Amino acid sequence: MLHQEGMSSDESDEENGHPVYWVKIRQWRSAELIRYLHMIDLDANRTNAYGKTRPGNAPRVRKRRVNATKSSRRAVPGLPINFYDATWYATLQNRDKFALKAKPVLELHTIIPVNHLPNA
Description:
The protein is an alpha+beta fold. It has one domain. 20% of the residues lie in helices and 12% in strands. The model has no long low-confidence stretch (mean pLDDT 83).
């Protein structure tokens, strides 16, 4: 739903000789959406069915700062209204709200991380 335009921006840096990517803030995102996306990130499956590392490039080490840099990317149009920060949305002019084409609220279901499921 967010597509590539909705992905987080990041700044590259180096920490202890290893590359680190600092996530930039997307001001238009609601706190509800940020928490949901963070849960998805935490539950990413990084191994295959045999417990081995998946083939291909290793995932980036992405970190979040409290005082992160703000991204200059525009908001993704056509998302549910609860994906947009209410304070940010309230500052938009009517023509900008119309162009954003926000859709009705979409309930974000609770994510239970796989490692927290009871043994089958």
